[in-house]
From TrEMBL:
This is Amino acid dehydrogenase. SUPFAM superfamilies: Aminoacid dehydrogenase-like, N-terminal domain, NAD(P)-binding Rossmann-fold domains. GO terms for biological process: L-glutamate catabolic process. Belongs to the Glu/Leu/Phe/Val dehydrogenases family. InterPro entries: Aminoacid_DH-like_N_sf, Glu/Leu/Phe/Val/Trp_DH, Glu/Leu/Phe/Val/Trp_DH_C, Glu/Leu/Phe/Val/Trp_DH_dimer, NAD(P)-bd_dom_sf. The keyword Oxidoreductase applies. The keyword Oxidoreductase applies. Residues 181-409 form the Glutamate/phenylalanine/leucine/valine/L-tryptophan dehydrogenase C-terminal domain. GO terms for molecular function: glutamate dehydrogenase (NAD+) activity. Keywords: Oxidoreductase.
């Protein structure tokens, strides 16, 4: 596996597009690792301090993810080095998407990512730049539909991603009008845990769980885990967190979800524990399940070792590359963890949004909540089942998953 991984990591990307904004200090890159299947896909992120190497590593990560989620295309990513809180952000994005629009028309599909919103920024700004939909390049480069079929499927994709959930099985509040895009990634993180226990043995019911991060992914993962019967004992967020060693009730988790402000956990003052104290206490809480859903490259070896000592069984990653490794994929902390507990890799557990895109692009499909969410659930289950067929042990799950993926790419 390591030889395959080294070969894949060291292979130069096919296309690197570099842009310097004429009106601000912003600089952007689109990195297309390959045009496997005639196209490539990956979202657009913005943060201060971003560089081309970060974009390259994310493009390679997307290509591995597509081996699970489909469609069978290359990985890509766009990144802009700029402060997303700067009032000039909208203008930067407008000029960026105009510059990159020929790629988006031909063979590259994009979407939202860190600090760039799919619905309010990517879709309307790319439309103004003359692109029918941010995924138009994937349709043209990979699916090659007739013009009429492309119009129909782009319409289906557009409606599907922003579809308001109608079932309280999938939404913490139907009246609040949460969409597929709001919930699907966190749903996949929770489903990966459920399928892990179903396939490798055991049950999620009654298991204690810790969630790191309470944005869309972490909040949704906590909601679905509580719905399944897991006991959320701790949630750690950027500004603090909450602990209940007996486990928060399903209704309490729903309340946390409904009261969060943007991507921030909100709790009563007597419940909210400041971050410094939370960061000291949470890693030693007895827990079987860990869902890291915050930023990338945060989890240290010391933190994960402490969790192992208190009964950790399985990790389902909502964040890409959650461990504090410098390597693109399989660094020493990840390897150490994979050898000792069940580690479901991010490209399986957080593939929900990529799978939804594939689902709506591939053919005419049903638009009801159950069909959309079952499709993502089945995709994740099949990926975990394929791992189990090659490796029935509860360790080295990520190593096996990478072997399966890389054999498709090299």
């Amino acid at each position: 596996m390591k030889e395959l991984l080294k070969k894949y990591e060291n292979k130069a990307p096919e296309i690197v597009f570099n842009w310097k904004d004429p009106e601000t200090e912003a600089e952007g890159w689109t990195v297309i690792n390959s045009l496997r299947g005639g196209a490539a896909g990956g979202g657009t992120r913005m943060r201060e301090g971003l560089d081309m190497n970060e974009v390259l590593s994310l493009a390679k990560t997307m290509e591995v993810k597509f081996t699970v989620s489909g469609p069978p295309i290359g990985g890509a990513k766009s990144g802009i080095n700029f402060n997303p809180n700067d009032p000039r952000k909208r203008g930067v994005l407008e000029r960026w998407y105009r510059a990159v629009s020929p790629l988006l028309k031909s063979y590259y599909g994009t979407g939202g990512d860190l600090n760039v919103d799919e619905i309010h920024e990517v879709i309307p700004i790319t439309e103004d730049a003359g692109v029918w939909h941010p995924q138009e390049g994937v349709f043209n480069g990979h699916f090659r539909p007739t013009e009429a079929d492309k119009i129909n499927r782009i319409g289906q994709l557009r409606l599907g991603v922003i579809k308001v959930l109608e079932s309280d099985q999938y939404s913490p509040s139907v009246k609040n009008k949460y969409t597929v895009a709001d919930m699907i990634t966190g749903f996949g993180v929770a489903e990966a845990i459920k399928h892990y226990y179903d396939i490798f043995g055991g049950s999620v019911i009654g298991k204690k769980a810790i969630v790191q991060g309470f944005g869309n992914v972490g909040a949704a993962a906590a909601f679905y885990l509580a719905q399944m019967g897991a006991k959320i004992v701790g949630i750690i967020d950027r500004e603090g967190g909450v602990i209940n060693e007996a486990g928060f009730s399903y209704d309490e988790i729903k309340t946390f979800f409904l009261h969060k402000k943007g991507n921030t956990l909100i709790a009563d003052a007597d419940r909210m524990i400041p971050f410094a104290e939370m960061n000291e206490r949470i890693w030693s809480l007895p827990t079987e399940i860990f869902a890291p859903c915050a930023a990338s490259r945060l989890i240290t070896k010391e933190q994960i070792t402490t969790m192992m000592d208190t009964g950790l069984e399985v990790i389902s990653s909502g964040a890409n590359v959650p461990f504090a490794d410098k390597e693109i994929f399989f660094g020493p902390i990840m390897e150490y963890t994979d050898e000792r507990v069940s580690l479901i890799p991010d490209f399986i557990s957080n593939c929900g949004m990529a799978r939804v895109f594939a689902y709506f692009m591939e053919r005419r499909v049903g638009m009801d909540d159950e069909l959309i969410f079952n499709d993502t659930s089945n995709t994740i289950r099949n990926a975990i089942l394929n791992i189990f067929k090659q490796n029935a042990a509860k360790t080295n799950i990520s190593r096996t998953a990478f072997e399966i993926a890389l054999k498709q790419l090299i």
